[in-house]
C-alpha cells in the first residue's frame, strides 16, 4: 500500500499518526503469468464473473461494503496453507497469495472447480496495517467500477488481517514496465489502453458525490487483467475529498518517492488534483520506461520528473527520452501530445492541472491518432547513464 517518505510537521488532524511500516528496502516478488510460482504450473484462468459488471462504464458507490467475511481457516484452505509456492508478490502490507474459491459462495475450492483469487495477508510487523486494512474495506468495499480491482471479502481473526481480491493475471504495471527480461515490452497501444483505463478509474473516484482522493497512484498499484485492462488496487491511503467549499484536506504526508505532488509533500495539503500529478508521473513512466525515482541513475536523473520535464515541456527533443523497448514503434506526434499532457498534469500549481475527466478525453484523442510505426529511422537513445532492471532500492516506507 503506501510508502512513507517522511512525516513532516504537516501532521494531520484527521489521521492517526502511524509509523512507517516498510522501513527497509527490498526486492519484491514478481507476479503475473511469467512471474513467481503462484500455485505451481500453468492454470487455466477463468475471469472473475462479476468483474466490470454491475457498475457499467460509469461505476457506482454502494452505501455499505458488500463483502464476504472469511474465517482464517477458510483462507488457509483457499491458499493451500499460505504455501510459499502460492506467493504472487509482496508489498508494504504483507504477502499476496494466489488461491481458489467457489465462484458463487466463495468457499474454498479445488483449483479445477473454482475461480482464482488473490489473498493479501498482513505482515504482523506492519504498524499502519490496521488503518490501511480498514480503509481498503471501507473505500474499495463500496466501489464498483471496471477500472478498480474488486474486493471480494476480508478476514479479521485474532491478530490476523486479510483481504481477498479478484485475481489479476497479468500482475502489476510496475513489473511490465521495469522488470526487463521477465515480461514482453508493452506496445504503444497497450500503454495507451492502460493509461486510459487508469485515468478512468481516477476520474470515477474524483467524480463520486463525496470525492475520493486515491493518494497512492503508482505503477505497482495498477494491476492488469488478462486483456491488460488496468485496475487500481490499494485504497489503504485513500481519503475523502474536501468538504464545504474547501480546496484541500490536510493530512500526514505519506506516499512513494517520485510520485507525490510537490504541494502535498511541502505542506500536507492534499488536493484532488494531487492525484492528477501522480498520474502525470505514471504517464511519464509509460513513455520513458524509467522509474519515477531511481537511485541507480546519476544524481541529476534520479527524480524522473525533475530530469525529464524540460524534454516533455517541448524545449528539448523528446525522441531520446522515449522507452527504447518501444523500438520507435509509435506515432511521434501522438507521443509528443502525450508528453505535453504529462507536462500539464505535473504543473506545480494544482489548479492549473487538468481534471481527470479532461485527461481521459485527451488520451482518447491521442489513441485515435493511431499506432502506426513511422518510416523514419530510429533515434539514438537518451542520455540515461544507467537503467536498473530491478525494483528501486531507494523506496522507503
Ligand atoms: N489482485 C491481485 N491479483 C494478482 N496479483 C496481485 C494482486 N494484488 C497484488 N498482486 C501482486 O502482489 C504484489 C504486491 O502487491 P501489494 O499491493 O501488496 O504491494 P505493492 O503495490 O507492490 O507495493 P506497496 O505496498 O508499496 O503498495 C503486486 O505487485 C502484484 O504483483
Ligand atoms: Mg499495491
From TrEMBL:
It comes from the Eukaryota. Residues 372-385 have a biased composition (Low complexity). Residues 1-59, 371-397 are annotated as: Disordered. Its main location: membrane. The keyword Transcription does not apply. ATP binds at residue 121. It holds the Pfam family PK_Tyr_Ser-Thr. PROSITE patterns: PROTEIN_KINASE_ATP (PS00107), PROTEIN_KINASE_DOM (PS50011), PROTEIN_KINASE_ST (PS00108). It is found in: Cell membrane. GO terms for molecular function: ATP binding; protein serine/threonine kinase activity. Keywords: ATP-binding, Cell membrane, Kinase, Membrane, Nucleotide-binding, Serine/threonine-protein kinase, Transferase. Residues 387-397 have a biased composition (Basic residues). Residues 82-366 form the Protein kinase domain. GO terms for cellular component: plasma membrane. InterPro entries: Kinase-like_dom_sf (IPR011009), Plant_Ser_Thr_Prot_Kinase (IPR050823), Prot_kinase_dom (IPR000719), Protein_kinase_ATP_BS (IPR017441), Ser-Thr/Tyr_kinase_cat_dom (IPR001245), Ser/Thr_kinase_AS (IPR008271). Residues 18-28 have a biased composition (Polar residues). It is an enzyme of class 2 (transferase). May be involved in plant defense signaling. PANTHER family: OS01G0588500 PROTEIN-RELATED. Belongs to the protein kinase superfamily. Ser/Thr protein kinase family. This is non-specific serine/threonine protein kinase.
Amino acid at each position: 500500500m503506501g510508502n512513507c517518505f517522511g512525516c513532516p510537521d504537516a501532521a494531520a488532524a484527521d489521521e492517526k499518526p502511524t509509523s512507517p511500516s516498510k522501513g527497509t528496502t527490498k526486492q519484491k516478488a514478481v507476479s503475473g503469468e511469467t512471474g513467481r510460482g503462484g500455485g505451481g504450473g500453468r492454470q487455466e484462468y477463468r475471469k472473475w464473473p462479476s468483474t466490470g459488471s454491475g457498475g457499467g462504464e460509469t461505476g457506482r458507490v454502494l452505501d455499505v461494503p458488500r463483502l464476504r467475511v472469511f474465517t482464517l481457516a477458510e483462507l488457509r484452505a483457499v491458499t493451500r496453507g499460505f504455501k510459499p509456492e502460492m506467493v504472487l508478490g509482496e508489498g508494504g502490507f504483507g504477502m499476496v497469495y494466489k488461491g481458489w474459491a467457489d465462484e458463487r459462495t466463495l468457499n474454498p475450492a479445488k483449483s479445477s472447480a473454482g475461480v482464482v483469487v488473490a489473498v493479501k495477508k498482513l505482515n504482523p510487523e506492519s504498524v499502519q496495517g490496521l488503518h490501511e486494512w480498514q480503509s481498503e474495506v471501507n473505500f474499495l468495499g463500496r466501489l464498483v467500477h471496471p477500472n478498480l480491482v474488486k474486493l471480494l471479502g476480508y478476514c479479521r481473526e485474532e491478530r490476523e488481517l486479510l483481504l481477498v481480491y479478484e485475481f489479476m493475471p497479468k500482475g502489476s504495471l510496475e513489473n511490465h514496465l521495469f522488470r526487463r527480461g521477465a515480461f514482453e515490452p508493452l506496445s504503444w497501444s497497450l500503454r495507451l489502453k492502460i493509461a486510459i483505463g487508469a485515468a478512468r478509474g481516477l476520474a470515477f473516484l474524483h467524480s463520486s458525490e463525496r470525492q475520493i482522493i486515491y493518494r497512492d497512484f503508482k505503477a505497482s498499484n495498477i494491476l492488469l487483467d488478462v486483456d491488460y485492462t488496468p485496475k487500481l488496487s490499494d485504497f489503504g491511503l485513500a481519503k475523502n475529498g474536501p468538504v464545504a467549499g474547501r480546496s484541500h484536506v490536510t493530512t500526514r504526508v505519506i506516499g512513494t518517492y517520485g510520485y507525490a505532488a510537490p504541494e502535498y509533500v511541502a505542506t500536507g495539503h492534499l488536493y484532488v488534483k494531487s492525484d492528477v500529478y501522480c498520474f502525470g508521473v505514471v504517464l511519464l513512466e509509460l513513455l520513458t520506461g524509467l522509474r519515477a525515482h531511481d537511485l541507480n541513475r546519476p544524481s541529476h536523473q534520479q527524480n524522473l520528473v525533475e530530469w525529464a520535464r524540460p524534454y516533455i515541456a517541448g524545449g528539448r527533443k523528446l525522441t531520446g527520452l522515449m522507452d527504447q523497448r518501444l523500438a520507435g514503434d509509435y506515432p511521434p506526434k501522438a507521443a509528443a501530445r502525450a508528453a505535453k499532457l504529462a507536462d500539464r498534469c505535473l504543473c506545480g500549481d494544482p489548479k492549473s492541472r487538468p481534471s481527470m475527466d479532461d485527461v481521459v478525453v485527451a488520451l482518447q484523442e491521442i489513441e485515435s491518432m493511431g499506432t502506426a510505426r513511422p518510416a523514419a529511422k530510429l533515434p539514438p537513445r537518451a542520455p540515461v547513464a544507467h537503467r536498473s532492471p530491478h525494483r528501486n532500492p531507494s523506496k522507503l516506507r
